[in-house]
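Hypothesis: this fold can be encoded by more than one sequence.
Test: take the structure tokens below, design a sequence, compare later.
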């Protein structure tokens, strides 16, 4: 059997193990990492290959899954053709996708070549939540691999860029945001001097643009109410400067432990009160509610969520989001800002929650009623942001 044939067999075996979970398990990426990392047959290059092929499968699942039983060879051929052309996948694609023309960027053209239904790639419920989701350019962006975005945590990036150049990495500064740096998807920066010394932090540009839209000014005391592992917390601490302070809270202790490690690496630990439960007298100058959500803005990185998420789960997320806003509102001082963000593109979670909050909270007025950061506008994840000012006690 040829090398590509052996790889095809291994791919189909892996997909068989994942198939019972890919429409139900929101934590599927962790399952994929465990499966690939626990297979002693696979070296690092093999893992990169199969990860790319698995994620291509998940992006185009309605075009692949029906073939896995009756025609697995055709399923593998389609996967190879649809996968990104990377150093790890190039040889497999060349040997497996025989007979097909070069893969076009447009999903409609891909569907024509394969005789597939392009509409099947957009869940029916999502079309009402996000107009334009089934049309280019948003459709194509959500089906593509996302690049790796970094945030510079130094005013002098020369050492960072010199190291990346020495590694032969192609990097690109964002034209939209100073300090945002793009690297090719799959680049491992975790062992670089720049990363280990805290000169860069991994943070999607969409996430970075949220705080840019909010307009966090130097100084002041912010609460990051849903801090998680702290990408925005660290960015916020940098924006506020030495005179500012961020209180970071989250219901997940493990996430706060990771935030503590990241803050220490970035040299920002003295500006962040991790897990501090005491509110300042009079309230915070601003509160950020970066709420748990359906994650539809992250489908480029987490394509399984396209099939795991339902209209019911979006509605449930919106109830939680509104509750978090209502609970956070009293913590904002008069004249202060309450900022609401999601990594969702769903109207129910975004404009719906923001509008409902304004309707019931007469002590706040809209500053940014709602702004959606579409993935194609910055080549990153999709986000929504709204801000409200407290006008009375």
């Amino acid at each position: 059997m040829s090398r590509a044939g052996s790889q095809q067999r291994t791919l189909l075996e892996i997909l068989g193990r994942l198939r019972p979970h890919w429409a139900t398990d929101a934590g599927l990426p962790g399952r994929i990492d465990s499966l690939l990392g626990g297979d002693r047959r696979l070296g690092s290059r093999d893992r990169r290959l199969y990860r790319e092929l698995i994620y291509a499968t998940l992006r185009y699942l309605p075009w692949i899954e029906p073939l896995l039983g009756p025609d697995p060879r055709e399923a593998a051929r389609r996967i190879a053709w649809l996968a990104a052309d990377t150093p790890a996948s190039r040889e497999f694609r060349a040997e497996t996708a025989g007979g097909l023309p070069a893969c076009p960027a447009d999903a409609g053209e891909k569907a024509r070549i394969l005789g597939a239904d392009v509409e099947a790639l957009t869940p029916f419920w999502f079309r009402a939540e996000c107009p334009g989701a089934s049309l280019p350019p948003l459709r194509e962006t959500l089906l593509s691999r996302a690049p790796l975005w970094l945030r510079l945590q130094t005013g002098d990036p020369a050492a960072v860029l010199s190291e990346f150049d020495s590694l032969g990495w192609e990097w690109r500064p964002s034209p939209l945001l100073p300090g945002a740096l793009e690297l090719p998807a799959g680049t491992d920066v975790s062992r670089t001097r720049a990363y280990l010394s805290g000169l860069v932090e991994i943070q999607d540009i969409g996430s970075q643009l949220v705080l840019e839209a909010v307009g966090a000014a130097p100084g002041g005391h912010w609460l990051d109410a849903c801090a998680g592992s702290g990408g925005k917390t660290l960015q916020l601490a940098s924006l506020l400067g030495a005179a500012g302070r961020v209180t970071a809270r989250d219901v997940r202790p493990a996430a706060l432990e990771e935030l503590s490690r990241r803050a220490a690496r970035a040299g920002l630990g003295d500006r962040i009160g991790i897990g501090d439960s005491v509110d300042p007298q009079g309230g915070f100058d601003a509160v950020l509610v970066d709420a748990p959500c359906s994650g539809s803005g992250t489908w480029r990185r987490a394509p399984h969520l396209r099939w795991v998420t339902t209209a019911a789960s979006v509605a449930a997320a919106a109830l939680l989001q509104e509750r978090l806003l209502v609970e956070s509102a009293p913590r904002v001082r008069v004249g202060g800002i309450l900022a609401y963000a999601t990594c969702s593109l769903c109207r129910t979670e975004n404009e719906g929650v923001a509008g409902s909050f304004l309707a019931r909270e007469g002590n706040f007025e809209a500053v940014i009623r709602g702004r959606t950061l579409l993935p194609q506008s910055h080549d990153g994840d999709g986000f929504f942001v709204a801000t409200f000012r407290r006008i009375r006690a």
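The chain has a mean pLDDT of 96. The chain has 18 helices and eleven strands.
Hypothesis status: open.
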